[in-house]
Design brief:
3 domains, five-stranded mixed β-sheet, D-Maltodextrin-Binding Protein, domain 2, about 35% helix, about 325 residues, 10 helices, alpha/beta, about 25% strand, Double Stranded RNA Binding Domain
Length: about 325
């Protein structure tokens, strides 16, 4: 019996059930254990409590104590440096990595009226939204996907920005009006990808999940996580990194920004298709990050500023 550990949100449960189904198709017996993480309990804004490990700490503790055998994470929530006791045993094929605009009132991003209220909890999204449209009233939006969508339906926001992958997995795409390209709104490193984590010494579980690994996804997210690790900006500075396959190889995009959107450093690189090993990916990620650092990203990463204060969403 393989015991999967998961958070209790609807999306996290979907992800755990998806991996469980894949394993059952391969003849494995599987159970799912629901665990509550620091991030689930936090009532403050992410900027106040910090995000590093807040959705994974308790799950990794359960792994270490042999209460579960593997954990299914949203890869973007997983710190770039794992404790030596754990390994990423598989990264399945990634869903859509892009950010998506969801709205009841407006047909797309360009149709948002002057001063429209747009909600997101992500500093990365907030900064890029403010840079794209300084006229927008960008506000904090917390909660699970269903909670955020309910606030949109209640009229608290003109639009919200969510990960396209989560909307697709939960079949909640009715209000999806636009998917931003990575060149317009750079996603978080690992966005849209799942990560299967297990104990380093658990060869039986590692063997059982090895078939779920998707090599192109693994290459792309290794680039992204290597860049993020090199930048090491933490949760207080908006950082985005994205790697995608193109006809002749790979296109990599990275951004570091001020939370108010007044300054965004953007770097783009290309890699031919012959470069496809893990070390190629790590080196490409490091080069991308170092190009941003050479252009002054270090100053932004060292900044202790926060996003502009905003009022409550409209009643």
């Amino acid at each position: 019996m393989i015991r999967i550990g998961s958070r209790g949100s609807v999306l996290a449960r979907w992800q755990a059930e998806y991996i469980a189904a894949q394993l059952r198709e391969r003849g494995q017996e599987v159970s799912i254990e629901i665990l509550v993480t620091t991030g689930d309990r936090a009532q403050q804004a992410f900027l106040q409590v910090g995000t590093k490990g807040m959705f994974t700490k308790e799950i990794e503790e359960a792994l270490a104590e042999n209460r579960i055998d593997l954990a299914v994470h949203s890869l973007k929530d997983l710190p770039t440096e794992l404790h030596p006791a754990f390994v990423l045993a598989a990264i399945p094929q990634r869903a859509d990595a892009r950010d998506a605009l969801v709205s009841v009132r407006c047909a797309d991003f360009s149709a948002l009226p002057q001063g429209a209220v747009v909600g997101t909890s992500s500093l990365r999204r907030q900064a890029q939204l403010r840079a794209l449209r300084p006229d927008l009233d960008v506000r904090e939006l917390r909660g699970n996907v269903d909670t955020r969508l309910r606030k949109l339906q209640n009229g608290d926001y003109d639009a919200i920005v969510l990960a396209a992958a989560g909307l697709e997995r939960l079949q909640l795409t009715d209000g999806l009006r636009e998917r931003f390209s990575a060149q317009v709104m750079c996603p978080a490193a690992g966005q849209g990808a799942l990560a299967i984590e297990c104990r380093a010494g658990d060869e039986a579980t590692r063997t059982a999940v090895a078939a779920l690994d998707h090599a192109p996804t693994c290459f792309a997210v290794t680039v992204e996580r290597a860049a993020l690790a090199t930048l090491d900006g933490g949760c207080h500075v908006p950082v985005g990194v994205h790697c995608e396959a193109i006809e002749v190889g790979w296109r990599m995009t990275g951004i570091v920004a001020r939370p108010d959107g007044s300054q965004i450093l953007r770097e783009e690189m290309y890699l031919d298709g012959v470069a496809n090993t893990e070390e190629h990916a790590r080196e490409a990620g490091r080069i991308l990050a170092n190009r941003l650092l050479e252009r002054g990203a270090g100053e932004l990463l060292a900044a202790k500023e926060s996003a502009p204060a905003t009022g409550n969403p409209r009643a």
